Amino acid sequence: MAQRTAIYGARDAARESRDAKMSEMKDLKSQTKYKSASEIDRKIKALETAQSTTSMTLSKEKETLKEIGELKKQRAVVAQTEAVAAELDGGKAGGAADNGVAIKDLNEQLSAIKAEMDKHSAVLNKIAEKNKDSAFPALMKEKDELKAQKAEKVAASQKLWDDFKALTLRVALCQLPVVEDKTVNIETAKKAIASAAANGAELVVLPEVWNSSYLASAFPKNAEPVPKGPSSEALAQAARDGRVWLIGGSVPERDESGTIYNTCAVFNPAGEIVAKHRKVHLFDIDVPGKITFRESDTLTGGGAVTVIDSPWGRIGIGICYDIRFPELSHVMRRRGADILVFPGAFNCTTGPPHWELLQRARALDTQCFVLTASPARAVDNPSAYQAYGHSSVVDPWGTVLATTEHEPTTVWATLNLERIAEVRSSIPLSKQTRGDLYQLEDVGPKDVNK
User: Fold this and answer.
1) Quick one: 251 and 110 in the same domain?
2) What is the CATH number for 253?
3) First vs last Cα of the chain: how many Å apart?
4) Is residue 317 within 8 Å of 247, Cβ to Cβ?
5) Are residues 62 and 172 in the same domain?
6) pLDDT at 7
7) 237: in domain
8) Based on the structure, what is the number of domains in the chain?
9) Do 405 and 310 share a structural domain?
10) Residue 294 per-residue DSSP state
């Protein structure tokens, strides 16, 4: 095949050379009426003889000399035409090869190659004809069947993997350091989300009030629209860049009327907001000699229960103090939640005795996974609000799957979602409630996006 391609190339080059010479000769012939140099030589000789032997006037002699000059120019053109013709017809010593002969030779070589290929094809056809009733077709059929079986096994393996992925969820809880500068806090959150996404997280959770100091007086200063404020827009972009589901902790939200809420926005991997939860129960406490805090001095409580759809089932959203009210978790469970997420900022007074206990209690009450994400403790700023930290993952059996201390970090866990059905079938609480003695009424609005 390579030899034939080379011959075709050589033949085409020879043809191009020949065509160029013929075009050149045609152009030269158009420049003169004489057919040969000898014809012009005879005419020049006659004029020169007449000039030398005949008495001419000065004007006549000038005219004769001019005619001789023109004839010499014509002779040069005719000589060049004859040279090109000689190259095409037979070549010149030391000149180009005979293109016509070259093309002929190349065509002969191509014909010889084609004949050889036809010979080989005939041999192959004879072999195929001879083997058509032999084991060869059976082997080919078996090969095709094996290919089909392999494709089926690959498809089955892919389905098993897809099913496994649907029954597991890789979560990352980002325990972020928080400072007074909102811009710095936004950059910290973006980097944490990007790192979690790069390391395989499918669901990322941020802490409560991660973009602001946790002070009632700081909430109005840092409040912004949700989802049109800079914090929410940064989270939307981070979710989109990382292709992750993002439960965006919470930020102080100011609505169109100027009312301020403690709000959690949830984003899908396209960066679209799918829900926002406004903290229902405000953190108003007074532990004598320990801590006094009143969120209600600047914040307003939300008015909706929030449960969203996700690829891993329904997820209920609460914020910090909401976890103390089992009724809210039970309503989320009744609305189909399998996972409850509580961004929170428990303090160092209530945190040690209550934080883990409440998470395990809500997990046991609802037989759901419970995820919590706290800010890191501000150990370098004693005057700041001191979060307890200890972001954690608890399974439906009440087992702590993953937790941490108070430093900035990311808590990782892979949720086996089959565990939910196992626990609920082992201890079927939902089938054993006594509706004749007590009832929980769900009276909140059903549209979580409002």
Assistant:
1) no
2) 3.60.110.10
3) 72
4) yes
5) no
6) 60
7) yes
8) 2
9) yes
10) E
Q: How many CA atoms lie less than 13 Å away from 109 in the CB half-sphere?
A: 16
Phi, psi for 309 (deg, rounded to 5): -90, 140
**How far lies 107's CA from each of 20, 62, 101, 110, 266, in Å?**
20, 57, 10, 5, 75
Residues classed as catalytic: 208, 279, 320
Domain that holds residue 379: 167-432
User: Residue 138: what residue type?
Assistant: A
d(CA 434, CA 301): 31
Sheet of 392-394, strand order: 306-310, 313-317, 337-343, 369-373, 392-394, 400-402
Tokens of residue 151, six digits? 């494709």
Beta bridge partners of 266: 247, 275
Please report the pLDDT score of residue 161 as a whole number. Answer: 60
The C-alpha atoms of residue 315 and residue 332 are separated, in whole angstroms, by 8
Residues 325 and 387 in one domain: yes
3-state secondary structure 58-99: HHHHHHHHHHHHHHHHHHHHHHHHHHHHHHHHCCCCCCCCCH
Among residues 28, 414, 387, the alpha carbon closest in space to that of 212 is found at: 387
For residue 195, being part of any structural domain is answered with: yes
Mean pLDDT, consecutive 10-residue stretches, the chain (450 aa), reads 63 70 69 72 74 68 73 73 67 45 67 76 70 65 76 72 74 97 98 98 98 95 97 98 98 98 98 98 96 96 97 98 98 98 97 98 98 96 94 98 98 98 97 94 71
Res 91: pLDDT: 45
